[in-house]
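Hello,

Our lab assistant flagged a job as stuck in the queue for most of the afternoon. It eventually completed. Since we weren't sure the result was trustworthy after the delay, we are filing this so someone can double-check. Below is the sequence as submitted and the structure that was eventually returned. Let us know if re-running is recommended.
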Amino acid sequence: MNIVDTHFHLWDLDKLRYPWLDEEPTLNRSFLLEDYYTATENLTVEQMVMVQCECLPSQALEEAKWIAECAQQEPRLAGMVAFAPLEQGRAVASHLDQLREINPNVVGIRRLLQGEQDNAFCLQPSFIEGVGLLEQYDLPYDLCINWRHLPYVYEFAQQLPNVRMVIDHIAKPDIKHGGFDDWAGWMEKLAKLDHVHCKLSSLATEADQDNWTIDDLRPYVDHVLTHFGVEKCMYASDWPVCTLAADYETCVSTLQTLIGGLSESEQAAIFRENGRAFYRLPVQMGTTT
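-- returned structure --
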């Protein structure tokens, strides 16, 4: 199965500062393109979307510039989901303009919500205004949240029907402890919003990282597929964060097993075509549509 990876990360500790890595010793080193090549050497990755990595906000434009330089040496690096301080409201337009100038391959914006102590952070009028501005730039918004944010995210998403959105990592349910019902109910509601999509990514990371099984993950993937439908789901690796629980190839083979009951064309849609369409990536020579 050829792959379009809609969510992977690169970070270089010699270039930028990533405070969150201080608490993640396993990941607290540089992860560069060469490392990604090693992780995917037995797979066919057609295109990749690099997602911002929470360097210092003051360095976000430097991160976008660096990824533009990486894309010059790796044409498969077809897009970047970049950081923007969306809580600035309309004032964020200046940052978005600079992003476009620095990196013309910016295909989406992410401003993390998962770390906010206020679960209702996304309902601030200025934040809603900032995300709403993405419609003018034809850029989608990546929702990186924890399952606890879902009630507020549902209210937030209802107010912005013209901004394409994708939920990262199926909203990080508490798979390790079997947390399902609250997560499932709100995901079902969000799935009814036409503009909200979902990444099937980092599944084992939210389970018992040392002892997870495919059956631990199955109810969650089945629920997402049932309600979002094949057409609104996309593969994403979340490499190298996924390596806290599984290597890249295991993540791919696990998802292949979990969606094995789908038709070949439906599996291709999840692993390749839906992500390409959502981020409006160019179809490169040698790829299929």
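-- support follow-up --
The delay was a queue issue, not a problem with the job. The result is valid. Strands lie at 3-8, 45-51, 77-83, 106-110, 141-143, 165-167, 196-200, 233-235. The chain has a mean pLDDT of 96.
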